[in-house]
Amino acid sequence: MIVWLNGTHGVGKTTAAALVQRLIPDSRVFDAEKVGETLMDISPGLPHTDNFQHWPPWRSLVVDTARRILDYTGGTLVMPMTVLVEPYWREISEGLDSYDIPVHHFVLHADQRTLMRRIQADSVMGPSSFRLNYLSPYADAFQSWLGAEAHVIDTSELTPAQAASEVATAVKTLGTPTQL
Questions:
Q1: Confidence grade of residue 109 (pLDDT, cut at 50, 70, 90)
Q2: Residue 175 confidence (pLDDT) above 90
Q3: Name one GO molecular function term (predicted).
């Protein structure tokens, strides 16, 4: 199965994923951003874009890579990846469904003020304009489809460990999803 951690850049998906992985037996983290980085390495052979998710091969490669990892290792993949474009999410989720891979889709959410504070105070990336630029698209996606699509965990007042615990508890409580 897959535990997909969605949410805007800077909300804490990568940190939470590492902690979730420790709480779910036989799980491993697969960061689909690495697939995008591989595609960027072959650029300029691809059309110019500000986001590798706009390249159709990224979406199908994420599905195929996740499937092959699960075929090889079994268990659970914890995938921290922002997907804000609904048709892209549909393509990915339908692709995973075509391989009978169940997905628990979570959105790690925080209010805009908390997100701004976290992004500005990030000791690793610093105040990232890239992350700040995604606050509005995230808010739009959350209001229009994402908030209703996934299990929302409001992290505004949670530590990363508490957010990870909520994800792991929800996965255990919900069991294996039968449909995306």
A1: very high
A2: no
A3: ATP binding
Question: ∠ CA(2), CA(40), CA(94), 5° rounding?
Answer: 30
Tokens 């110019």 found at: 48
Give me the mean pLDDT over the 40-48 stretch: 79
H helix and E strand count, the chain: 9, 5
Instruction: In whole angstroms, give the CA distance from residue 101 to residue 81.
Output: 17
pTM of the model: 0.91
What tokens appear for 119 in the block?
A: 């992004």
Q: What is the pLDDT of residues 115-138, one digit of tens each?
A: 988 888 877 777 788 888 889 999
Which strand (E) or helix (H) includes residue 91?
helix 86-98
What the block records as the tokens of 32 is: 């689909």
Strands 27-29 and 76-80: parallel
Phi, psi (degrees; rounded to nearest 5) at 148: -90, -20
**Strand bridging mode 2-6 / 103-109:** parallel
* Under 8 Å between Cβ of 23 and 164: yes
* Domains, the chain, with CATH or none: 2-174 (3.40.50.300)
Query: What is the spatial distance between Cα 70 and Cα 76, in angstroms, rounded to a whole number?
Result: 7
